[in-house]
């Protein structure tokens, strides 16, 4: 690796860091064999964590940060004065293999600014994946960011080589998209999601390989006026209509070379965190968007407490529930009990009647759960209905120092 | 019971068989690992070669991980677990709230976490052998006795590389064929000397950090300090954290950049320009693309004049078409040529193509057996077919067989029941006048006899009717 390549790596990793979708999970188990390189494990491995607390699982870079488009929230937009660089297909391949052999990464997450034309750009991305797989027997994880304006056949080709395809929706509403990303077309983005979703389903039925780890997207939170409710409604639609595997939420973060169309100050990172929690409730806990939103005010989630606790506090009539007899669906709604803890409870109570200390061994969130649970030796009594319950459950605010 | 140092699964298994056979209670056993002699003198003799103890699979798996733990009590706890299983609690592991099960689950979890961290945080360094061969070496300090347990992961992942993993509790060596488990090692000196990729990795690590989100607590929860010493990138952490507030402040204080050129003309024009402008350009794309069906060697393009009155769409190229690179040259193609002649259609004046551009086959010895494309595969190719017909602009499109009809209508069509004129739609309102009939290969497969001859006559009649639709009455 010469100095010029090192320099480009710095620029093109910096440009890619605002994309939150970097997980390597969800791929089928696969190995490269005696002549290939690498494997995917199914669970995904985070190889490092940066001081922002986020993991490094994949080599997340842009092919280039030159771009024809001018999306206000993006540091690489045409009108930005950021330093530009561009990798060749072979350079990305070399970097991926080099880092992979040193066990630094699980694979590659490749995105790109749009240069020359969307088709040209998409083809370059596809060629990187194809070269890795076909010429180097690379069995690690590959995630390609689809260029939504590219022609359908190129996206079909990319799906042959990638583990996951994604297209960033970026903004929850078509109106915001029009305002902040004038060249982007919300309809086109969803059309491609539909195309990819359909191909993934067909391939699964026909036992072919096409983006086997599914598709994902990202929405930026806090750059426009969208409420949490409208963000979650959009996610819910994406999960149901296009079978998306994940929606990532990325709190808008101040960028160098910011556009004057954007707020200068970032939204609280906590908002992103609450949206992820709400997303889990949506996918694994049987909550509807309306129920989640009802826990907050005016379409925004409560920043002080997690959305499940917020819902429970507003629906106290449904608590306390008996840990020894309640059905799984209701146990999942108890604040402090995660899905894994609930499964263990259901399994364990076939053998014994659970006391509070038993539950404590199965769940680390007992402090919050106490007020909502009945166990063999425990009844919360009036605790569930106390007006100061929220204060009792929320740790007293203390001055946090981030630095 | 004396066991080897570290994780002695075999020794534990042997001892356990003896203890269970002799009916020894867990409280009467003192387990000791390594060379240190047992404090309580010689153990009572146990039956040699006692029979295996049948255990439920989850219990066996739990033993496999827990013996790797550093806790000196691990063997005694496992013995107690096995005693209870032998006494009839076969599904004991479902009883998550049981104190013993819970304790063992914590040990199991700690070992699994350690395994995961070794998979994640081990870094190979390339070392240069005198002969220039590529070789990788890593140094790692695991929390428990897991080195051998990680071997399958690293062998599977780096099977084609030559590598060595050194740790204070054992080492592994892989030469692309076999694994050698070796003794404890000392930390090697100067591993990452001259490795530009190690330097590149640090640059990447620094660049991917977003100072506006600094959160060292979250980082340390997943990547505790004890691992930092052997992670080359961790050297950058203190400076990154220190400089973050100033970097963020600078970004917020910097005046918003005034947009420069904002007209989207160029981007919009680029999108419009990228569509292939001619049939030749489309064909170049098809030739350059990978097959979307398994088997094919090269794309077989359509053949015939642009502006042909009739376009004939078959299923996919066959063995001979694939070799020659031309559509309809095999047995079915020859039959089609004869039928077209009888129907009064000049083959050279029609446009002949296939719904799927590649030969899908399964190799059976030297033979390449034709395989029908699936509905999904037909859809993959549909974009190209639609564009192609868009350039040819035929007055009538003839679909030969069900696959062609599927490609042209987007639904499954029963050819024998629906043969005849049909409207073929593209997405949107555009479309073509169409005609559905059988594929000539269907005629080839019919057993010889009256039925077959009649079927051929029907096929010619269909083509004649199609010709009539193009030429109009008279």
Could you walk me through the main structural features you see in this protein, from its secondary elements to its overall organization?
The complex is a heterodimer of chains A (403) and B (474). Chain A is of the alpha/beta class and 403 residues long. Chain A folds into three domains: 265 residues, TIM Barrel; 34 residues, no CATH class; 86 residues, no CATH class. Helices cover 39% and strands 11% of the residues of chain A. Chain A contains 15 helices and twelve strands. Chain A has a six-stranded parallel sheet with strand order 5-6-7-8-9-10. Chain A has a two-stranded antiparallel sheet with strand order 1-2. Chain A is globular. The two termini of chain A are 34 Å apart. The mean pLDDT of chain A is 91. By secondary structure, chain B is α/β, with parallel strands linked by helices. Chain B is built from 17 helices and 14 strands. Chain B has a five-stranded mixed sheet with strand order 3-4-5-6-7, with helices on one face. In chain B, strands 9-8-12-14-13 form a five-stranded mixed sheet, sandwiched between helices. In chain B, a hairpin with a 5-residue loop joins strand 3 and strand 4. Chain B is elongated. Chain B starts with a strand and ends with a helix. The relative contact order of chain B is 0.06. The mean pLDDT of chain B is 90. Classes of the chains: A alpha/beta (403), B alpha/beta (474).
Index terms:
heterodimer; A: 403 residues; alpha/beta; 3 domains; globular; B: 474 residues; 5-stranded mixed β-sheet; elongated; metal-binding (chain A)
**Mean pLDDT of chain A, nearest integer?**
91
The major β-sheet of chain B equals: 5 strands, mixed
Biggest sheet strand order of chain B reads: 3-4-5-6-7
Summed over residues and divided by their number, the pLDDT of chain B gives a mean of 90
Order of H and E elements of chain A: HEEEEEHEHEHEHHEHEHHHEHHHHEH
Strand content of chain B: 5-15%
Distance between the termini of chain B: 104 Å
Q: What is the CA-based Rg of chain A, rounded? A: 23 Å
Oligomer classification: heterodimer
| Fraction of helical residues of chain A | 25-40%
Task: Tell me the strand percentage band of chain A.
Answer: 5-15%
Instruction: Flag low-confidence runs of chain A.
Output: none
- Secondary-structure-based class of chain B equals alpha/beta
- Can you count the helices of chain A? 15
Helix content of chain B: 40-55%
- Tell me the CATH topology of the largest domain in chain A: TIM Barrel
Biggest β-sheet: strands ordered side by side in the sheet of chain A? 5-6-7-8-9-10
Q: pLDDT below 50 for ≥5 consecutive residues: which ranges of chain B?
A: none
Outline type of chain A: globular
Domain Radical SAM core (chain A): 51-288
GO molecular function (chain A): catalytic activity; iron-sulfur cluster binding; metal ion binding
Protein name (chain A): Radical SAM protein
Keywords (chain A): Iron, Iron-sulfur, Metal-binding, S-adenosyl-L-methionine
